[in-house]
Amino acid sequence: MSLNPRLVKESFALLEPDSPRASAYFYGRLFAEHPDLRALFPPAMDVQRNRLFHALTTVVWSLDSPDALTTYLSGLGRDHRKFGVSEAHYAAVGAALLATLRKFLGDRWTPEIEESWAAAYRIAAEVMHGAAVADALMAPPWWIGEVVGHERRGIDLAVVTVRPAQPLPYEAGQHVTLQVARWPRMWRQYSIANAPRADGRVSFHVRAVSGGWVSSALVRDTEVGHSVLLGPAMGAMTLARDSDRDLLCVAGGTGLAPLKALVEQVAADGGRRRVHLVVGARRGDDLYDLPDLLRLAAEQPWLRVVPVVADDTSYEGLHGRVSDVLEEIGDFTDREAYVSGPPEMVAETVGRLSALGLPPERVHHDALHLEGRVACPHLSGYIGAGPLLTPP
Ligand SMILES: NC(=O)C1=CN([C@@H]2O[C@H](COP(=O)(O)OP(=O)(O)OC[C@H]3O[C@@H](n4cnc5c(N)ncnc54)[C@H](O)[C@@H]3O)[C@@H](O)[C@H]2O)C=CC1
């Protein structure tokens, strides 16, 4: 069986307009044929449905970038260990996926397209399963963590610090999935907001969003001493090892978390790169971490923090959306850029940086999609709840 990336992409583009119905059909068929698999997923499947298509989009559009695809799928495979996914599950998901594509493409489905999808799926499943097997030799499927800090920084925002019971390996800029005792099987993604610390503690910036069960529980019902579960670290928005360029970090809201981790990493590496950290918020009082950032900037001559507020005329400082003020702040064309925040803000900022002349390989982003947020089709990343494509 051979893989033709063009056929996979073209046929997937035909399916995209029908993605909500196709996703519902996929899960319906999967659970009808394998009722035992239902127990791996959370009771509410809304986030899950987006998640499947987001992951498929990432895989399909990365078919021509084998390294990025392998990194993504390996992370996914390691992450799926926490669901107790087995090799047989991969086969069940593969069959349901092909059945879904066949049904929704109708007479546009050809034996060549089927062959290409089967090959793509087989390769993806092998990478995910292989990474999971290798990971099982050295790491647990999930980590138990004790909440050791809980700071309310606003009506709907908290900085939550957790100490994992065992060492949790990660790099600055990565994210993990997190589960609270109150909502079993409901995993949500959060970036770790600090560079690795000697005592292993990890901090998260959490905004309680409407309809966000896990984020609300973390902000409103979590106290020091509570336990949470953490999945393995994932994501490629880490410091580019082969570059010593100065950095431009552009944050929107709690998207600040991974960028703060990168800033701390630059400090841990000796502060040899200049960093401009542009921090966007809707209102002045949404700049929930500004005192800490300004303290860091006062200590570190290589760091400049630029707060920007979009919707608050009483704010005494720079006004606008982060994507619109970059040119005013400086010329960043020779820098390595990192962008994190709401999907629309990431898309706008990435577009603006490209228009300003930054080549795409120097613009890093890792669109996270937390509860209640809609995926931005051309950005990579994946949503975290139950198993995804569960495994192939
Ligand atoms: N908590 C975490 O660990 C992480 C969160 N994120 C994402 O960051 C986002 C944070 O949400 P909130 O704190 O509620 O932020 P928010 O919705 O209050 O927005 C923050 C900033 O983004 C700007 N913005 C919004 N829409 C824009 C657009 N279309 N173009 C340009 N700028 C725009 C706003 O002007 C503001 O400066 C969420 O989407 C979350 O998924 C991303 C990475 C990590």
Molecular structure report:
Pfam families: FAD_binding_6 (PF00970), Globin (PF00042), NAD_binding_1 (PF00175). Its cofactor is FAD; heme b. This is nitric oxide dioxygenase. This protein is α/β, with parallel strands linked by helices and 392 residues long. The chain has three domains: 132 residues, Globins (Globin-like), CATH 1.10.490.10; 88 residues, Elongation Factor Tu (Ef-tu), domain 3 (Beta Barrel), CATH 2.40.30; 119 residues, Rossmann fold. The protein has eleven helices and twelve strands. The strands form two sheets. A six-stranded antiparallel sheet has the order 4-3-6-1-2-5. Strands 10-9-8-7-11-12 form a six-stranded parallel sheet, sandwiched between helices. Helix 1 crosses helix 6 and helix 5 runs antiparallel to helix 6. The longest helix has 26 residues. The protein is globular, with a radius of gyration of 21 Å. The C terminus is likely disordered.
